[in-house]
Amino acid sequence: MTYCVGMLVDEGLVFLSDTRTNAGVDHVSTSRKMVVFEDPGERVLVLLVAGNLAITQATLQVLTEPQEAGRPTLWTVPSMVEAARLVGEAVREVHRRDSEALTSFGVEFNCSFILGGQLRGQSMRLFQIYAAGNFIETSSMNPYFQIGESKYGKPIIDRVLTPATPLDEAAKCALISMDSTLRSNLSVGLPLDLLVYECDSLRVTRYATLDQSNEYFQMIHSTWGERLRQVFGEIPDPVWSDAAHVPRRSRGDDPVLPIVPRSPLDGHGVQGGQARPAQTLAQVQPSAPHADSRGPDTPPG
């Protein structure tokens, strides 16, 4: 498994990937999931990969091996959309060649890609490409993509990232997202590859490989955990009200629930034809600090 995230903000692009690969608990290795295609002054394209390592490597071979005369490559495509389409065609080529053999061995054709970058004279763009070769693009409402083990790192991005987020803050958000994933999933691991692309630079100016010895990432790891515990402790505990209205059942009661007619919410906790337990938690006193709906990996306010 792996975790990769790509972000598109007004100031540039952020790409972050781990390097762990595994084929069982006793076969853990590392492999880079980030590939950079750079022609300084002309184009910068970054490809992140996740899924079956043999399939993603076969796709990269198709993209990078010499092509027949006149066939476009990532070095020659005229637009980012054509670049995304080229990656999709490479995925389908590998599928046509290998999928039947993989299926006969019970191996799922599993791969996904994030492709982003900029060509001279054009805008930055970011795409997610699926195993079928089709793809989607980011929007102002969804300026990022994740592939691989994404669920642990998603809450922080959803709450923080917008197109107006400064580039360095977007990079910090990506690293916190990765730290949350590393904390909760052993199939994602160090070292990390981080590339931050500045809009219209048309060259790579910010790149780092982060491992256990990286002081900044270790600071994020320790500080984020400490501040989460601090904010958690500051949220008021629940205040319990009278438990007289608990929906108790007596021994020998008919276990079949009665049919409740549809009606608007009434004083007995009935809404939309379903019986709801009576509320037993009193509201927190107005003088207490307000508690919002922050997720488990959400920065303090």
TrEMBL record:
GO terms for molecular function: peptidase activity. The keyword Protease applies. InterPro entries: Ntn_hydrolases_N, UCP009120_prtse. Residues 244-301 are annotated as: Disordered. The keyword Transcription does not apply. Gene3D superfamilies: Glutamine Phosphoribosylpyrophosphate, subunit 1, domain 1. One of its GO terms (cellular component) is proteasome complex. This is Putative proteasome-type protease. It comes from Paraburkholderia caballeronis. The lineage of its organism: Bacteria, Pseudomonadati, Pseudomonadota, Betaproteobacteria, Burkholderiales.
